[in-house]
Amino acid sequence: MDQKGIGVMSDSVPIVEGRGIVKRYGHVTAIDHSDFELRNDEILAVIGDNGAGKSSIVKAICGATIPDEGEILIDGKPVNFTSPTEARDMGIEIVYQTLAMSPAMSIADNMFMGREIRKPGFMGKFLRQLDRSAMEKFAREKLTELGLMTVQSINQTIETLSGGQRQGVAVARAAAFATKFIIMDEPTAALGVKESRRVLELIQDVKSRGIPIVLISHNMPHVFEVADRIHIHRLGKRLCTVRPEDCSMSDAVALMTGAMDPPGNLAA
Questions:
Q1: What domains appear along the chain, each with residue ranges and CATH number?
Q2: Rounded to 5, what percent of the chain is helix, strand, coil?
Q3: Mean per-residue pLDDT pooled into runs of 10, the chain (268 residues)
Q4: What is the edge-to-edge ordering of all strands in the sheet holding 14-25?
Q5: Is 117 in contact with 131 (CB distance < 8 Å)?
Q6: Is 82 exposed, middle or buried (0-12, 13-18, 19+ CB in 10 A)?
Q7: Residue 121 class from Cβ within 10 Å (0-12 exposed, 13-18 middle, 19+ buried)?
Q8: Taking the chain, what is the end-to-end CA distance rounded to the nearest angstrom?
Q9: H or E element that contains 47
Q10: What does pTM read for this prediction?
């Protein structure tokens, strides 16, 4: 490994930072005084062996898990999320491996699930009627922006879409509402080669729009293709952060599995 691979960019301010995060479940310590840092305009890949705690640290960042100790800062200000809804209200979106969409609902309805637009005036305020035309127009615009309008209709149900199209809708939904950053948890895990390629293109497109991304993945070629930095998690904490151009895939795997120790300048 090139000794220059230290993951520090002093000219950029972290959009989210975790300091000394701890999460215990009884006698099991899932997160062990771990640090985390996502900078503006970057794709940060988070990798680690099964049980290393990579998903746990990201869940703590987005409010899905409440840490026992430590501090989380958004734009340099401490936050204390108690649920993913609070994080979402601050502009943090999550794309889950399981898609987290309703198959029987339309694309537009899934895009606005939990944040539906009501009709103006009496009909919306008192009768709670939805402004479906506004939601459909917005959903169509966002899918078009990301080159996803290959679907037959914005009103077709999610269950009629391919795996890649479904994941594309999930990415479009996140990109439409995220103002801080997006977390993507294994977004290509259940997809074929062609569909995975399209999702990777979407990830890079979203980044080009100025939205930072946290990418959790086991797919090393995908990680090295799109990531600006790689956060390597081991035994509940950040082991080190490397740049793809300064670290080989085999070195990253060796660090992740404990077969190799990080150089002193790379240790977290």
A1: 1-91+178-268 (3.40.50.300)
A2: 35, 25, 40
A3: 43 85 94 95 94 91 94 94 92 81 90 88 86 90 77 85 84 90 88 85 90 94 96 95 94 93 68
A4: 28-39, 14-25, 69-74, 77-79
A5: yes
A6: exposed
A7: exposed
A8: 16
A9: strand 43-48
A10: 0.86
Cα distances (angstroms) measured from residue 115 to each of 42, 73, 180: 27, 25, 18
Q: What would the two tokens of residue 172 be?
A: 């479009």
What does R_g of the chain's alpha carbons equal in angstroms? 19
CA–CA distance, 219 with 46 (Å, rounded to integer): 11
In the structure encoding, which two tokens stand for residue 263, read together?
Answer: 């150089």
Reported as type and span, the H/E element at residue 216 is strand 213-216
How confident is the model at residue 81, as a pLDDT? 93
Beta-ladder partners of 232: 47, 240
Measured CA to CA, the distance from residue 8 to residue 267 in angstroms comes to 11
Measured at the alpha carbon of residue 88, what is the angle toward residues 115 and 94, in degrees to the nearest 5? 100
Six token digits for residue 257: 């599995």
Which residues of 49-159 form beta strands (DSSP E)?
A: 69-74, 77-79, 92-95
pLDDT, residue 4, reads 39
DSSP 55-73: HHHHHHHHTSS--SEEEEE
Q: 18-34: buried (b, 16+ CB within 10 Å) or exposed (e) per residue?
A: beebbbeeeeebbbbeb
Helix and strand totals (H; E) in the chain: 9, 10
Q: Which residues contact 175 (CB under 8 A, 6 or more apart)?
A: 93, 142, 146, 182, 206, 209, 211
Q: Which amino acid is at 13?
A: V
